[in-house]
Amino acid sequence: xxxxxxxxxSTKLPRNASIAFHIAAIITFLVYGLYRLLHDxxxxxxxxxxxxxxxxxxxxxxxxxxxxxxHKQFTLILVCMAIAISSYYLGYKSLIYVFPTIFIFxxxxxxxxxxxxxxxxxxxxxxxxxxxxSFALVWRFGVATFDCIIFAAIxxxxxxxxxxxxxxxxxxxxxTGALNRKNLAASLSLSIESFRHTGTDSSLxxxxxxxxxxxxxxxxxxxxxxxxxxxxxxxxxxLPAEAKLFRFGGEEFLVQYxxxxxxxxxxxxxxxxxxxxxxxxxGVPVTxxxxxxxxxxxxxxxxxxxxxxxxxxxxxxxxxxxxxVVSRLDK
Length: 331
Ligand SMILES: Nc1nc2c(ncn2[C@@H]2O[C@H](COP(=O)(O)OP(=O)(O)OP(=O)(O)O)[C@@H](O)[C@H]2O)c(=O)[nH]1
Fold this sequence. Notes:
The chain is of the alpha+beta class. It folds into 2 domains: 6-171, no CATH class; 184-327, 2-Layer Sandwich (Alpha-Beta Plaits), CATH 3.30.70.270. It has helices spanning 15-38, 42-63, 69-90, 92-95, 98-108, 111-129, 135-171, 184-198, 212-219, 221-238, 262-278, 303-319; strands spanning 202-209, 243-247, 252-258, 290-296, 325-327. Strand 2 and strand 3 (252-258) form a beta hairpin. Helix 3 (69-90) packs parallel to helix 6 and helix 6 runs antiparallel to helix 7. It is elongated, with a radius of gyration of 29 Å. Guanosine-5'-triphosphate binds next to strand 1, helix 9 and helix 10. It holds the Pfam family GGDEF. Keywords: Membrane, Transmembrane, Transmembrane helix. Its cofactor is Mg(2+). One of its GO terms (molecular function) is diguanylate cyclase activity.
């Protein structure tokens, strides 16, 4: 089962924080831009405008809820260009602004891209500042800058790992390791959308362990718990990457199988049923079986209808004697 790794994500900057960053940056550039203008330095004022204009547009988009990470990335590149150009003319007075910008990279690019881009940016600013600053001073700035990049990367790494752990905890059933129902509706809706737009098949396999109450009553609740965990492992091992396993209820599991029409789904259901029959479950010295209702997605299906059809098929499998697979009954 695949979980999106937060290290690969362009870290999402909360909207309020993003607005605050934009405003702080605009005020800073505006103050220094006007200061330069007062000193008849029209060129540097224009350079600062290179940062102020995209920052203002990006701020406006953010306020109107239209902000995208790509806008922010593009804006940051222009801001960095402005700082690099002014480093050439102002030296250390401009270099000090490299520090805060480095941290922004780690908010809007993924860790790897932020590390590479911020190092490249810092290097350009340091080299351009050599025009008016001594090598010793630029060297000191360089050491401090690269310390900043390392610290920012470490913080970003820790935050990404914590984010992964939180996502895992929030979306995973503790006992069985299957996904819980938190993202089920969203995940099924995506399959429905992709079926409607691109014709990508999807199927549901609703699986219910047979006579589970008897297992609990005969071998104890703890043995029942262990069976659920082991059951989930058996199913997960057989599922391909396009299939997600959800714990749907007590002893009920749901497989959402993408890129999978009815025939393939039925094959998989029989494979799962067979594997469960063959498994010796700890503390349960009898053959365990399960019933499976299979429902392929159809054009007119709503989320509720799709689920309902898998439930009707499961009910039919139970009614016809259990330990069997039944596909959706409506024509
Ligand atoms: N050990 C354990 N039992 C659970 C858990 N969640 C639900 N159950 C039990 O699962 C049992 C489900 O029983 P039923 O719905 O009657 O189903 P069944 O006995 O499997 O019968 P059929 O589904 O008709 O074959 C109930 O006794 C629940 O208490 C759990 O997390 N751990």
